[in-house]
Write a structure and sequence with these properties.
Blueprint (H helix, E strand, L loop, with lengths): L5 E2 L2 H13 L4 E6 L5 H11 L4 E6 L19 H10 L4 E3 L3 H4 L19 H4 L3 H16 L3 E5 L3 H13 L5 E5 L19 H6 L2 H14 L4 H14 L3 E9 L14 E9 L2 E8 L1
Parallel strand pairs: 1-4, 2-3, 2-5, 3-4, 5-6
Antiparallel strand pairs: 7-8, 8-9
Length: about 280
């Protein structure tokens, strides 16, 4: 198997993309922070259905880590990631250094509102989405893809990036791909490796309770009643809950009285020292 090429600089990335463009080939981008798992590979496969060429970025972005979060401890598994992407037949890895992405004197961030200020992840990680939007905005201008694929597991992030691309008239179509799950329903995540055997078993309560809560809402239960029951069930399973909320599926705003809008159920909470997130459609 041929070695999958790696671009370490924006210049090298643009040179490769320019060669593809000269052959009128469409390009898709899959942004990641590495520590890849089958959920990421599903994004690559979805990207291949949209475009002839697929770039996967691997960059642990310091701008989206809060001071209380340990950037240095984020898992870095580049050799394994490269092997997985070679098997998946991606076309190029873009793996810049921090200095390449944020050179000395870098002083620009993207200011956000709308789905980035929904009182969900932003309430617990207030600087997170500015860091995400800034690095994704840079990746979009560096790679200039036709499509960009993001997993629905990070649902608020998907909505933030979609809104940013639309508001800034960036010529890229942002596509959300379904969450890939383990056999017991737990969403695949690089964080799952930190769970003990007992914690991993308890994590199965997340998709089960969310499904039950969504069914109650669809069955006519009030949001407050269904969510209260769901929170109690997750606490009983051992979780310290940051939020379990039903929101407008597009804007992430609080649902309007009277119903009729599409809703998304979103969860975040800790078990032990590991924080997990998930979401499902209602």
């Amino acid at each position: 198997m041929a070695t999958l090429p790696v671009a370490r600089t924006v210049k090298a990335l643009r040179a490769e993309v320019s060669r593809w463009r000269a052959s009128d080939e469409r390009v898709a981008l899959v942004p990641t922070m590495g520590a890849l798992h089958p959920g990421h590979i599903s994004l690559v496969k979805a990207a291949q259905r949209k475009a002839k060429r697929v770039v996967v970025s691997i960059f642990v972005n310091p701008a989206q880590f809060a001071p209380t979060e340990d950037f240095s401890k984020y898992p870095r598994t580049f050799a394994n990631d490269r092997a997985m992407l070679a098997v998946a037949q991606a076309d190029l890895i873009f793996a810049p250094t921090v200095e390449e992405m944020y050179p000395e004197g870098f002083a620009t961030t993207i200011s956000l509102d709308g789905p980035a200020k929904a009182g969900l992840e932003d309430a617990f990680r207030p600087t997170h989405f500015a860091g995400v939007a800034t690095v994704v905005g840079k990746l979009f201008t560096q790679c200039a893809p036709d499509f960009a694929l993001f997993g629905e597991k990070d649902y608020q992030q998907l909505k933030v990036v979609t809104r940013m691309a639309r508001d800034l008239d960036l010529p890229v179509k942002v596509i959300g791909a379904p969450t890939v799950r383990e056999t017991d329903g737990v969403a695949m995540s690089s964080r799952n490796r930190y769970l003990s055997e007992t914690e991993r078993a308890a994590a199965a309560a997340i998709p089960r309770v969310m499904k039950e809560t969504a069914e109650q809402i669809r069955g006519g239960a009030s949001l407050s009643t269904a969510l209260k029951r769901g929170r109690a069930a997750l606490e009983k399973a051992g979780f310290s809950i940051d939020y379990l909320e039903a929101r407008n599926a597009d804007t992430l705003a609080q649902p309007k009285r009277g119903g009729g809008e599409k809703l998304r159920l979103l969860f975040a909470g800790k078990i032990g020292t590991t924080r997990l997130i998930d979401n499902i459609a209602v």
